[in-house]
Amino acid sequence: MKGAMFRFCGCVAAMPIAAFFLPGVHTADARTAWIAGAFLGFIYLVLRPIAKLILLPFNCFTFGILGFVVDVLLVRLAAQWMPGFEIDGFWWALLAAIVVSLLREGAGTLAGHGA
């Protein structure tokens, strides 16, 4: 439970960072970036495990690359549903998904060492 909370916080923090450093990721303002991060974190908590489980056999054949495609699709889904949050294309969504993954896993790692 603690790890999931830290990963969610990492996801929330990833969107303002991605919007600041990646020119293809746009948010209306800082508040929207934080809300988009929280929305993406919720999507990652709910939809990502289901998608990963369904696509597990195909993910094995692609050596994990399909996992990044799932993350990109979730980032694009969040951009479609969240007003004031836009991503210019697939490649920017891929870079944003990499930033989110790095911060999520980094926060999850911190949760494991802090006990």
Descriptive overview:
With 115 residues, the chain is mostly helical. It contains five helices and two strands. The mean pLDDT is 88.
Outline:
The chain is mainly alpha-helical and 115 residues long. Helix content is 80%, strand content 5%. Strands 1-2 form a two-stranded antiparallel sheet.
Strand coverage percent? 5-15%
- Helical content band: over 70%
Distance between the termini: 12 Å
- Count helical runs: 5
The total beta strand count reads 2
Shape descriptor reads globular
Name the average pLDDT. Answer: 88
Strand order of the biggest β-sheet: 1-2
Structural class estimated from helices and strands: mainly alpha
The largest pleated sheet is described as:
2 strands, antiparallel
- Strand-and-helix sequence, N→C? HEHHHEH
Question: How would you summarize the topology of this molecule?
Answer:
Elements: H1 2-21, E1 25-27, H2 30-54, H3 56-61, H4 65-81, E2 85-87, H5 90-113
Antiparallel strand pairs: 1-2
Helix pairs in contact: 1-2, 1-5, 2-4, 4-5
Q: Descriptors for this entry?
A:
115 residues, 5 helices
